[in-house]
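Consider the following input, taken from an annotated entry for R13L1/DRL21-like LRR repeat region domain-containing protein (Nymphaea colorata).
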Amino acid sequence: SCPREMGELCNLRYLGLKWTWELKFIAEGLEKLTNLRTLHRFVVCDDKGDTKGCDIMELKDLNKLQGELSIQGLGGTRKPIVCARNAQLLKEKHGIISLEFYFGITGGVSEQSNDEQSGVLDALEPPLGLECLEIGDYKGKMPVWHLNTKYTKLHSLKLERCHLWEKLISITSLKVLNVINCPALCEIASTPALESLKVEECCSLEQLPRHMPALKWLDVALCDSLEQYHMPALKLLM
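Applying the prediction step yields:
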């Protein structure tokens, strides 16, 4: 765990939490670290005894963050939609180029409804300069910003256990796409720059995109409705 006193380190610029998989609790107070450039991992926490845990609102004033940020435990956030809107990831945090949104919570099941999780993800609209995006353990619908065609730098997208996600639009800059255990997915639009495609446990998907001239690597498994496909330009087929 990270103690409450950490919030007093007001000049801190680097907080390396990238490989801290055993970290389950961050006390409130992170919002005071307004000079922070690198965070890597942010865990949304329930309270622990008399100590309040970090909520997504703590990110609101961390406008100097750069690089990659993984936000985990979103399914446990209190006042989920209001807190997410206050985080202002799109408006203020243009230095972030890689984002992960994971809704799973440690040791339990999220009490949020599908609509609440949809509201959270809609409110956490990423900056337009985003290059990599991962979303996991998500039971809401596709966010409105998914239809925004201005994400011209996005080159890597991963969706894992996104149970109501129905389709993926064409993203002209996308090179790597991984879609795992998304049972409602029924359409992947043609993506001309795509080089690597992994599709697993997508039981509603009936066909792959027809136009993927740059595709070099394809891995398909446990997609029972998928038609036969022919990709002559492939270098590796799993």
